[in-house]
């Protein structure tokens, strides 16, 4: 027998103030198995007639005189992860490559969120505070971690959107985890165990880019490192594979084979079209080239195959972007491209696994 109790209250849980609405408090008068939050079902057992608190990571309950009161603690990151996994037809990780200024990033966040909301897909806003792997030491890197995280936090609060940003060193993970909802592991670092573990221990969702030098099977091992560190919230991303010197190619088979990682699959439709650095910049630096005109081609392929998420970098003035301008998609065309991708994804059955029947065809 289940009965809603009008017992709405405020409770402190592990130092965090949580408001428990009455709709989340359930009275159970017998043994039962109940779904409490998405993906979670557990069996309740009456242990004692005395008052006794029981705790876990996602719920806590009070046992009193053969009555169990359930208080659901909604973990916002588990909720975000479930929300992204269930996205129909896909979720979007998007924003400018690097934080150029506070005004620019706030303006970009406003426009990207407006477009994603209009198209009807979940958005996680992306930008980097430091491009630590630039080709030239003279090239623009960003504002740095301290200032960059302050700016990303302002974006998060101003527009109520989750944030994804990347880390390059284990020492950055704790600070980044206080702001970002998703911590991104760069492709060059996808096998770095200490970095994966440090990111995992923040409790934040971990997004791992596949190295350009890696087979898709490697990503299952990288994802497992995150899980073994105690964090089940992981996703992996295809961003192209080296095709000889100075070129990348996107193999659609990777998007299927990477499902062995048993987590959401993301396609990076912009970095996968990078080309060797060639453009000389003021100050002596150089910038990567790219094949922007092929972004729609790679994107159409990815959603037809049935990816869970699309990663793309977007800019309002890509010709003058200080980093990766040739592979950033013009903001003015973002809505148009997303609408097309949503239409393709809805027609395709890419997320459905085909059951191949090899029995002889009847005569």
UniProtKB/TrEMBL annotation:
Catalytic activity: D-arabinose 5-phosphate + phosphoenolpyruvate + H2O = 3-deoxy-alpha-D-manno-2-octulosonate-8-phosphate + phosphate
Intracellular or extracellular location(s): Cytoplasm
UniProt EC number: 2.5.1.55
GO cellular component: cytoplasm
Record organism: Canavalia gladiata (Sword bean)
Organismal lineage: Eukaryota, Viridiplantae, Streptophyta, Embryophyta, Tracheophyta
Annotated ranges, domain DAHP synthetase I/KDSA: 88-340
Entry-linked InterPro entries: Aldolase_TIM, DAHP1/KDSA, KDO8P_synthase
TM region positions: 12-31, 51-72
PANTHER family cross-referenced by the UniProt entry: PHOSPHO-2-DEHYDRO-3-DEOXYHEPTONATE ALDOLASE
Protein name (record): 3-deoxy-8-phosphooctulonate synthase
The organism's place on the tree of life at top rank: Eukaryota
Top EC class of this enzyme: transferase
UniProt family annotation: Belongs to the KdsA family.
Keywords: Cytoplasm, Membrane, Transferase, Transmembrane, Transmembrane helix
Gene Ontology MF terms: 3-deoxy-8-phosphooctulonate synthase activity
HAMAP family the UniProt entry points to: KDO8P_synth
């Amino acid at each position: 027998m289940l009965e809603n109790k009008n017992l709405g209250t405020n409770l402190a849980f592990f130092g965090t103030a949580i408001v428990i609405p009455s709709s989340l408090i359930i009275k159970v008068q017998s043994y039962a198995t109940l779904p409490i939050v998405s993906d979670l079902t557990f069996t309740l057992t009456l242990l004692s007639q005395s008052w006794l608190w029981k705790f876990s990571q996602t719920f806590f309950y009070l046992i009193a005189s053969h009555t169990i009161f359930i208080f659901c603690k909604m973990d916002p990151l588990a909720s975000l992860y479930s929300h992204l996994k269930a996205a129909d037809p896909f979720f979007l990780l998007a924003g400018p490559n690097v934080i150029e200024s506070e005004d620019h990033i706030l303006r970009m966040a406003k426009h990207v969120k407006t477009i994603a909301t209009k198209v009807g897909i979940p958005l996680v806003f992306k930008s980097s505070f430091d491009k630590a792997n630039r080709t030239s030491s003279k090239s623009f890197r960003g504002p740095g971690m301290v200032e960059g995280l302050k700016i990303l936090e302002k974006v998060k609060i101003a527009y109520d959107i989750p944030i994804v940003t990347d880390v390059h060193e284990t020492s950055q993970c704790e600070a980044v985890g206080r702001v970002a909802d998703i911590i991104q592991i760069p492709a060059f670092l996808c096998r770095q165990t200490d970095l994966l573990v440090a990111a995992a221990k923040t409790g934040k969702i971990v997004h791992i880019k596949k190295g350009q030098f890696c087979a898709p099977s490697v990503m299952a091992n990288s994802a497992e490192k995150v899980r073994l560190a105690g964090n089940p919230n992981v996703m992996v991303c295809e961003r192209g594979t080296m095709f000889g010197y100075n070129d990348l190619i996107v193999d659609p088979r990777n998007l299927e084979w990477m499902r062995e990682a048993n987590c959401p699959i993301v396609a990076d439709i912009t970095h996968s079209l990078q080309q060797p650095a060639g453009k000389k910049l003021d100050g002596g630096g150089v910038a990567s080239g790219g094949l922007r005109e092929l972004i729609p081609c790679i994107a159409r392929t990815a959603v037809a195959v049935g990816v869970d998420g699309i990663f793309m970098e977007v800019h309002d003035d890509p010709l003058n972007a200080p980093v990766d301008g040739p592979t950033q998609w013009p903001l003015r065309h973002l809505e148009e491209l997303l609408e097309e991708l949503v239409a393709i994804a809805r027609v395709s059955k890419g997320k459905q696994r085909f059951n191949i029947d090899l029995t002889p065809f009847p005569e």
